[in-house]
Design brief:
The structure holds two protein chains of two kinds. Chain A has helices at about 55-70, 70-75; strands at about 5-15, 15-20, 25-30, 40-45, 50-55. Chain A is an alpha+beta fold. Chain A has a single domain (about 5-75), classed as Roll (SH3 type barrels), CATH 2.30.30.140. In chain A, a hairpin with a 2-residue loop joins strand 4 and strand 5 (about 50-55). The chains are: A alpha+beta, B alpha+beta.
Chain lengths: ~80, ~375
């Protein structure tokens, strides 16, 4: 149940890699699993891979939802 | 910290073994986001919320809602399409672990290109219909037969010994090599025993067990008949002869890896022939009292349960019980097997603990940290 937080593609790198920005944190991910990614696109990332590409409206709506939920998630318990 | 949450395992190394391993689970409970929303809005949000299992989550949510509204069951075409979509997602998840994570843990170069190719085909299969699903299902069955389980198809009898088991596993490419390495690391019969294995239950049985939409406490530490239980491939394939052999000989971690390969075959079969009568249903739903419904869905990681209560057009209560919370319950499978065992050196201990976590299939990134403590 990994949450799908959109990350923005800010730079392409060698070997089908890209740098993405997730709330100010940048990391390098593989683009091997998705087609047609362009700079500025939003992708869903999981452990080093971009899993899917989102259209900007969808990504903004999802990001707004997670921002709205920030307080809720801040109180999430630990197991 | 990853905003999507994660698992942090803090293990102690005393020079002879791991006396303790503490688990911190920071995974947020996304069901909170759905309460108070209009039903159609909540249903539209669900597939966008989850990175790995969006289709399973969306179909389970829809099934629970239909049960709450006492709507008739979906027709056969819709149920076939749903099963193909869930099977494609499950196969993607298993391939990720089997082709990337397990080989990497044992220093074997993962086959990233082949993985990416299959992952993309599975992503398209759900949308492209039955023929596409049948084709990629066949490719996965070929992969399992030729590359993952090759050594087990050459003889009709079961292996006489664990040595023979490891030898046969090694004929099966990178995942077979990882399985052989796991077996040769030695037995790790859990000193505190294993958690109960969660049996398949119908949605009506879950409704009777839960009684109502479960609260947040239950969702973060679920129990079956009052106790923690393990869900996932080992629970589903406990009766498989070779899986059982590995558990009985003190190799639960290797048993989970082998069960995952068997499970991948099942999902590939479901892609080719959904709704087979000789396999348990993938999604099932039942009413859960007035205006409430529950649905359970088999996924690669185990059973996923959604329960909700509606009030007019609004979601009044929503609960999601995910596989990670079963297997990483504070007194569950990880807690029982994560500590109290010995290893010849720290590197072996690190590898074993990572293998244990991988086999229990968390749906979020995890990190294992070791701290050296005084000798006991």
């Amino acid at each position: 149940m990994c949450l799908a937080i959109p990350a923005r593609v800010v730079e392409f790198a060698a070997d089908d890699q890209a740098v993405v920005d997730l709330g100010g944190v940048r990391k390098q991910v593989s683009l091997a699993l998705v087609d047609g990614v362009e700079l500025g696109d939003y992708v869903i990332v999981h452990v080093g891979y971009a899993l899917s590409r989102l259209d900007p409206e969808e990504a903004e709506a999802t990001l707004a939802l997670f921002r709205e939920a920030g307080e809720l998630f801040g109180t999430a318990g630990t197991a | 910290m990853n905003p999507a949450g994660g698992l942090l395992i803090e293990a102690a190394w005393d020079g002879r073994g791991v006396p303790s391993a503490r688990l911190l689970n920071s995974r947020p409970q996304a069901a909170k986001l759905l309460v108070g929303r209009r039903i159609d809005e909540a249903m539209a949000l669900i597939p966008a919320l989850f990175a790995l299992c969006g289709k399973a989550q969306a179909l389970t949510a829809q099934a629970a809602l239909s049960a709450a509204r006492a709507e008739p069951a979906a027709d056969e075409d819709a149920r076939s399409a749903a099963e193909r979509a869930i099977a494609a997602e499950a196969a993607q998840e298993h391939l990720w672990r089997l082709m990337l994570d397990w080989p990497a843990l044992f220093g074997i170069e993962p086959r990233r290109g082949r993985f990416a190719e299959l992952h993309r085909q599975l992503g398209r299969a759900a949308a492209n219909g039955a023929d596409s699903a049948r084709e990629v299902g066949g490719q996965i069955l070929d992969l399992v037969a030729a590359e993952l389980l090759a050594g087990f198809f050459t003889m009709a009898r079961e292996p006489f010994s664990l040595g023979e088991f490891a030898s046969r596993a090694r004929r099966g490419g990178s995942i077979g090599a990882a399985l052989g390495d796991l077996l040769e690391m030695g037995t790790h019969a859990p000193p505190h025993g294993m958690a109960a294995l969660l049996p398949w239950q119908s949605a009506a049985e879950w409704a009777a067990e839960l009684g109502r939409v479960p609260d947040e406490v239950f969702c973060s530490a679920p129990t079956w008949q009052g106790a923690p239980a393990e869900t996932g491939p080992l629970a589903r394939h406990r009766a498989s002869m070779l899986v059982r052999l590995l558990v009985e000989r003190g190799h639960p971690v290797a048993a989970r890896l082998f069960a995952a390969v068997v499970d991948l075959s099942d999902w590939a079969s479901r892609l080719r022939h959904p709704l087979a009568e000789d396999m348990p249903v993938v999604v099932d739903a039942a009413p859960l009292g007035e205006g409430a419904g529950v649905a359970c869905c088999e996924t690669a990681r185990g059973v996923l349960i959604h329960a909700l209560r509606v009030d007019g057009d609004t979601v009044a209560e929503y609960a999601i019980v995910a596989p990670t919370e079963w297997n990483f319950h504070p007194a569950g499978a990880f807690a029982l097997e994560g500590s109290g065992w010995q290893a010849p050196d720290l590197e072996t201990a690190r590898r074993h603990l990572n293998a244990l976590v991988l086999g229990l299939k968390p749906c979020v990134p995890f990190e294992v940290r070791f701290t050296e403590v005084g000798h006991a």
